[in-house]
């Protein structure tokens, strides 16, 4: 890597404020490459798909976001918000006085209260440090029902809504729970997010409630459940939140494994922040660039960090709860129809092992669900905007000679797109009847009939090419003709 002296590694060139507003909708908060946790601020309703609208008051810091996407948004779940004064389940919002962001770090100071929030993260935990001015009563809202809601969309359909869940006080420094949600771009299937929260000092009070108001006892359930934690004149409060799509146990294990803060005698905030920077330096160093122009370096490494933000790596038989198959799984492909254009081609050059793993995940999904997905979000296929772009990526991987893929099995699912009518072409497969009988899609198909026709034809060419590489001459000839 050729970098100017005393400038540090490539992570020093990442500017988290590039591309966060208007059509960009990227994240200013901390995340790591392919992490589950993408922590950051959400502003007052209505929110863009990334949750953050610069200049608007902040209502919480939530743990999972999508980055750079349009549509109805998704996630913004398990939110925390610091505030001063009396404990309440509805503390309002905070106006930012100053914001700072870098690779692995975000900070904001609120006007009026002077409360400072600092955030960093590990792959599956959010790490928070809240500094309260002297003499102020320190409180922290834990909003289990937090969810991004884009204006003009119907909650529970094209944007999110809280369906239920629970929050439970485990001790005077621990909470756990689950948020149940529905809605967002691509599909409206329900999903759940589990959490485990640990504070570095005991809370003196814990007010629990839900949409109907405060609830007595050590737990609360139902839509929009939440907790208000009181710390007295604490000065500083450190919090670690484990996030899981599988279980509270997984969320707790991530806190203990990734931060070693079961008793808060492990790594502190600054050490975890430094570790996040080291992860970014290593990941961004996969592409070496020479350039004396700092502006160009900042643009390149910032956009590179955006590229490897998604999908989220769920590990092998770990964070993917639908089945166990010994295959590394990912979520939040948003979507192959977008990334097939150039992102996957680039990934296959600088990290071919990752591209192979992502394609094997898609093939494993097809083994269990019968269809190769185009978008795969929160455990379900999501809206297809064109054809089956997985066909293109599998063919490209074969042409590049990427090992470790069962291309013969993949070809079976690619052919299925052309040979079997889909019960729901909105989510998987093709609008096959018209394409097969007419040779094109008519305007009876209400979305993208012309581009879908072109994509189906190109994907037939991909099937023919892969079949020829596998020695299946008859199939190759059949699909070359179909591609015409």
Description:
This protein is an alpha+beta fold and 484 residues long. The protein is built from eleven helices and 20 strands. The strands form four sheets. Strands 4-5-6-7-16-11-10-9-14 form a nine-stranded antiparallel beta sheet. A seven-stranded antiparallel beta sheet has the order 1-2-3-8-15-12-13, with no helix packed on it. The chain has a two-stranded antiparallel ribbon with strand order 17-18. β5 and β6 form a beta hairpin. α6 (352-369) packs across α7 (389-399). The longest helix has 21 residues, at 449-469. The radius of gyration is 24 Å and the shape is globular. The protein starts with 39 loop residues before the first strand and ends with a helix. The relative contact order is 0.10. Residues 1-6 have low confidence and may be disordered.
Gyration radius (Cα, Å) is 24 Å
> Class by helix and strand content?
alpha+beta
Q: Helix proportion of residues, in percent?
A: 25-40%
Shape: globular
Distance between the termini: 47 Å
If strands are numbered along the chain, what order do they take across the biggest sheet?
Answer: 4-5-6-7-16-11-10-9-14
Percent of residues in beta strands: 15-25%
Q: Average pLDDT, to the nearest integer?
A: 94
Instruction: Name the poorly predicted regions.
Output: 1-6
Largest sheet: 9 strands, antiparallel
Individual helix count: 11
Number-wise, the strands total 20
